[in-house]
C-alpha cells in the first residue's frame, strides 16, 4: 500500500498497520476491540483536522459533521470493522473517500448549503456479535434492542457489557429516530466485491440492488465419547454428521440458480483431539435473488441437512439469526446519479450479493451506493484490491455527487 502514502488515499496508508492479523493474514478489526478503538480514534483525529465535529451516537456509530448537524443532511460513509482476516478496502475505502471528498470541497472554497456528515457504522460485518450491519439495524430499529443487548461474543461478553466498557449506556442502545431523522440522503462508496466492473471495463458503478440474505445456526447434536474406547460402529459423531450437512448445503445451493450458500464458521463442542464431539454449531450464510427464493433455499437445506446427519445417528436444529430482504435501490436516484456522473454508458448500474449498511438504511431514508472496481474480484480476503487510479475515480464521482447535492 506504499503507493498510497502521499496521495489522496493517504488515509488508507495511515491505517495500513492497524489490526493486521498475523495468524489469519489480512485484517481482523472487531467492534470495540483494540484495532477498532484505534481506528475510531484515527477517524476522530482525521475528521477533527478537517474541522468536523465528531459525535458517537447511542449505538456506537460515529458521525463527523461539517457545520451544524441538522435535518435533510447529506451523509456519506461506510464502516471500519472487518471480517476475520479481511481485506484493506471493504469499509475503509468508503470512509477515507468521504473524508477526502470533504477535504477537496474545502480546498476549493466550497460551502455546503445543506448539513453534511461522514458516518462510520459499528459492527457492519457482525464479526464480534454475529449480526451484520448491527449499527445501522440498531439506528433504524431493525433489531430489537433487548435482543441486541443479549448478543454474546466468542468470550461470552454481552453487547450490553461491551457497550458499557466502550463508554455507552446500554439502556440507550436501539432505535434512534432523532439521529436517523437528520439523514436526507445516504451514500456509501464501497469496493466492488465481485467482477462486474472488471467485466465491463469501467472503474465506477452505481449499485442497483442487493440479494436477499441471512444467517442461520445449524446445531448438530450427537453423543460425546472417548476417541479410543468407542468402536467406529458405535459412534454418533456430530462432526462427521456436520461434514455431511455442509456437503448438503453446497448441493442444495447448486440446485437453486444464482443462489449462494456458505458455511464459513464452525464451533466444535467440546473440541478435543481425543474427544468425539457432543455437538457442532455450523453457521450458514444463504443468499438468493428474492426473499421467497432465499427462504425456499433455506427450507431445502434444512431438510437435506436433517437427512444427512441422520446417517450418523445425529439431529440438527436450525435457528435464524439475521435476515435482510432484497434491496432495490430507488431507480430514480440511481438514474439521476448515473446522469450526473456522465451517463449510462460510462456509469453502469450493478447488483451485488454483498450486504451493506446502505441497504439497511434504504428502508428508512433515500440511499445509494457507488462501487469501485476490484481487479481481483475477491473480497473478505487479503486478496481484495483496488487500483489507486480507480479509488481516485471513486472519490471524483463522490465529489461530483456531493457538489450536485450540497
Ligand atoms: O456479509 C456481507 O455481505 C457484508 O460484506 N457485510
Ligand atoms: Mn464485508
Ligand atoms: Mn463492507
From TrEMBL:
Residues 215-307 form the Peptidase M20 dimerisation domain. This is Allantoate amidohydrolase. Pfam families: M20_dimer (PF07687), Peptidase_M20 (PF01546). The keyword ATP-binding does not apply. Belongs to the peptidase M20 family. The keyword Hydrolase applies. Keywords: Hydrolase.
Amino acid at each position: 500500500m506504499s503507493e498510497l502514502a502521499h496521495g489522496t488515499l493517504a488515509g488508507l496508508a495511515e491505517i495500513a498497520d492497524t489490526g493486521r492479523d498475523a495468524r489469519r493474514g489480512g485484517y481482523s478489526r472487531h467492534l470495540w476491540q483494540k484495532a477498532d478503538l484505534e481506528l475510531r480514534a484515527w477517524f476522530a483525529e482525521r475528521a477533527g483536522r478537517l474541522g468536523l465535529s465528531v459525535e458517537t451516537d447511542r449505538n456506537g456509530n460515529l458521525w463527523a459533521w461539517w457545520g451544524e448537524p441538522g435535518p435533510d443532511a447529506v451523509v456519506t460513509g461506510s464502516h471500519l470493522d472487518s471480517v476475520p482476516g479481511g481485506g484493506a478496502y471493504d469499509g475503509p475505502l468508503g470512509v477515507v473517500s468521504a473524508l477526502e471528498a470533504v477535504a477537496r470541497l474545502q480546498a476549493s472554497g466550497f460551502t455546503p448549503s445543506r448539513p453534511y456528515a461522514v458516518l462510520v457504522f459499528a459492527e457492519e460485518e457482525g464479526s464480534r456479535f454475529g449480526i451484520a450491519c448491527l449499527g445501522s439495524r440498531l439506528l433504524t430499529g431493525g433489531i430489537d434492542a433487548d435482543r441486541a443487548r443479549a448478543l454474546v461474543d466468542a468470550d461470552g461478553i454481552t453487547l450490553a457489557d461491551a457497550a458499557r466498557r466502550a463508554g455507552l449506556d446500554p439502556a440507550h442502545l436501539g432505535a434512534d429516530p432523532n439521529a436517523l431523522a437528520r439523514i436526507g440522503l445516504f451514500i456509501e462508496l464501497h469496493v466492488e466485491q465481485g467482477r462486474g466492473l472488471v467485466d465491463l471495463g469501467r472503474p465506477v458503478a452505481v449499485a442497483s440492488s442487493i440479494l436477499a440474505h441471512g444467517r442461520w445456526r445449524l446445531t448438530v447434536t450427537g453423543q460425546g465419547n472417548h476417541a479410543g474406547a468407542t468402536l467406529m460402529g458405535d459412534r454418533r459423531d456430530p462432526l462427521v454428521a456436520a461434514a455431511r450437512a455442509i456437503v448438503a448445503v453446497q448441493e442444495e445451493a447448486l440446485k437453486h440458480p444464482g443462489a449462494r450458500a456458505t458455511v464459513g464458521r464452525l464451533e466444535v463442542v467440546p473440541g478435543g483431539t481425543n474427544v468425539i464431539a457432543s455437538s457442532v454449531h455450523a453457521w450458514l450464510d444463504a443468499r438468493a435473488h428474492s426473499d421467497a427464493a432465499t427462504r425456499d433455499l433455506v427450507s431445502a437445506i434444512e431438510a437435506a441437512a436433517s437427512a444427512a446427519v441422520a446417517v450418523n445417528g445425529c439431529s440438527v436444529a436450525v435457528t435464524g439469526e439475521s435476515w435482510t430482504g432484497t434491496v432495490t435501490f430507488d431507480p430514480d436516484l440511481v438514474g439521476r446519479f448515473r446522469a450526473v456522473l456522465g451517463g449510462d454508458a460510462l456509469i453502469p448500474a450493478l447488483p451485488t450479493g454483498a450486504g451493506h449498511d446502505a441497504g439497511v438504511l434504504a428502508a428508512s431514508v433515500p440511499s445509494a451506493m457507488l462501487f469501485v472496481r476490484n481487479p481481483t474480484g475477491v473480497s473478505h480476503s487479503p486478496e481484495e484490491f483496488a487500483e489507486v487510479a480507480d479509488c481516485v475515480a471513486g472519490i471524483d464521482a463522490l465529489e461530483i455527487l456531493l457538489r450536485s447535492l450540497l
